Amino acid sequence: MMPVVVIGNGPVGQTTALLLARWGVPVVLLDGREERDPVGSKAICQQRDVLDIWEAVGAGRRIADEGVTWTTARTYYRNKELFSYALGDAGRSSFPPFVNISQARTEQILDERIAREALIDVRWGHQVVGLRQDANGVTVRCAGGQEVRGAYAVACAGARGDEIRRMLGVSFGGHSFDDRFLICDIRADLPGWAHERRFHFDPSWNPGRQVLIHPCPDSTFRIDWQVPGGYDVAAEEASGALDRRIRAIIGEAPYEIAWKSVYRFQSRVVDRMRAGRVLLAGDCAHLVAPFGARGLNSGVGDAENAAWKLAYVLRGEAGEDLLESYHEERHAAALENLEVTTATMDFLVPQDEKQRKTRLRVLSAAAADPAMAARVDSGRLSEPFWYDTSSLTTPDPARPFAGRPPRGQVPATGPGILLPDVPVSTVDNRRLRELARDGFLVLAVPGTDVTGLGVPALSLAEIEEFGARPGELWLIRPDAYVAAVVTERAALGEALQRALGRVVIPQR
């Protein structure tokens, strides 16, 4: 089997490579850097369902155990708490809603898993300068003159993958925000701060702007301040103003700055996430503001979607048309993330006087008015995208998708929704999603005939927890999404063909 070339050895590229290897697909993993640069916290919030994906390659439990668990998000306005909420779970996942851990440490753990994979060939110092496609594969040319041949490629080259996007002829439309954000990783002993995300609107110690505080391992706290466009961190540090900025939050506790940076956030998405035999993933395909932790988490969703589809095509179990559904599904996910995070940024940084007045009215009333509290936007936290309108999903009239649920909640399980995770005591104490990620799977409640379906099938009492009924056959995709819920065997076969991208069946 020809390898898949993965361009970019950040966490999205690492995840893509590991998942492909799990499917038995050889990978050449390229990166233009000479070695990894483990500096700064960068993407710190790892969502429960992403930890579950990483567990499929042997890394999720370790990342979760080393990270700091948090289950509550608190929001304040002018030092008064407006509300807090906990994050829901439709099943009984073994992972917490979120853990905070530095991107650098996540990358180290994924590197250790990659080192054990004979199917992954890692090549540092290979800057990609050319891409050539033909009917049989992709030729990747590197700056040193090396050429790497693969059946397909996945571009995970990050936010600075401008040359890759140019080579592929894709646009990267969007805009940048004028305000900057100062980020400091601070080591300090701050009792009571270790298991909550805290978001402050207009605190007295950053008037007119916002501050976000996240706990991290080893008594480290990530603090993000919104600062003016012309902000100069070096000048502020030299004058002592940076110390005063930090002291306003943590008081007199001793501290040290482990890392600091100033960012200008962008909202951008490519017009195509598939360009022939090349799929684009992660920040190479989409950039969003970080409020809501939708960057890396969404990139890992890209990686899983790409990996199982490439594996099925390469193994001859699906046609190349299945790859078009990668663009369909993950581009829709990127657009939703763009919509959600842009709405957050418009609330954080109003674009006109009308928006400013609306924000002031909402924040002033939110403490006493639940309806106004629901309109406070400090970032809708990362969640899986729902493929309810995907061409791979067979709709069920009895389970219509009700739309985006309130923040912190999950939708009812049905076609296009990620299967809730529960322990399965009758199958070697494995978990439901673990079973699902072995390939297409049919689930039914006990008493339903599941013999002779042509697809691996299980009768499990546990699936009654999320609404499965006697006589129903639940078709689950290899990424643990529900592809269909049917009651007839003929309909199951049709749904499987649709989920493999072999036929386009009109929506009913």
Features:
globular, 3 domains, Alpha-Beta Plaits, 508 residues, FAD/NAD(P)-binding domain, alpha+beta, 7-stranded mixed beta sheet, FAD-bd, 6-stranded mixed beta sheet, 29% helix
Layout of strands and helices, then pairs:
Blueprint: E1 4-7, H1 11-22, E2 27-30, E3 45-47, H2 48-55, H3 60-66, E4 68-70, E5 72-77, E6 80-86, E7 98-100, H4 103-115, E8 120-123, E9 128-133, E10 138-142, E11 147-150, E12 152-155, H5 162-168, E13 172-176, E14 180-188, E15 196-201, E16 210-216, E17 220-227, H6 233-239, H7 241-250, E18 255-263, E19 266-270, E20 274-275, E21 278-280, E22 286-287, H8 296-314, H9 321-348, H10 353-366, H11 370-373, E23 423-424, E24 430-431, H12 432-436, E25 441-444, E26 457-459, E27 473-476, E28 482-486, H13 489-499
Parallel strand pairs: 1-2, 1-12, 2-8, 5-15, 12-21, 25-26
Antiparallel strand pairs: 3-7, 4-7, 5-6, 9-10, 10-11, 13-19, 14-17, 14-18, 15-16, 16-17, 19-22, 20-21, 23-24, 25-27, 27-28
Helix pairs in contact: 1-4, 1-8, 2-3, 8-9
Q: Radius of gyration, Cα only, in angstroms?
A: 23 Å
CATH topology heading of the largest domain: FAD/NAD(P)-binding domain
* CATH fourth-tier homologous superfamily of the largest domain: FAD/NAD(P)-binding domain
CATH architecture classification of the largest domain: 3-Layer(bba) Sandwich
Q: State the oligomer.
A: single chain
N-to-C CA distance: 38 Å
**Structural class of the helices, strands and pairings?**
alpha+beta
How would you characterize this protein structure?
The chain is α+β, with helices and mostly antiparallel strands and 508 residues long. It folds into three domains: 4-41 and 48-66 and 99-173 and 267-341, FAD/NAD(P)-binding domain (3-Layer(bba) Sandwich), CATH 3.50.50; 180-263, Alpha-Beta Plaits, CATH 3.30.70.2450; 386-508, Glutaredoxin. A seven-stranded mixed β-sheet has the order 6-5-15-16-17-14-18. Strand 27 and strand 28 form a beta hairpin. Helix 1 packs parallel to helix 4, helix 1 (11-22) runs parallel beside helix 8 (296-314) and helix 8 (296-314) packs antiparallel against helix 9 (321-348). It starts with a strand and ends in a 9-residue tail after the last helix. 46% of the residues are buried. GO terms for molecular function: FAD binding; oxidoreductase activity, acting on paired donors, with incorporation or reduction of molecular oxygen, NAD(P)H as one donor, and incorporation of one atom of oxygen.
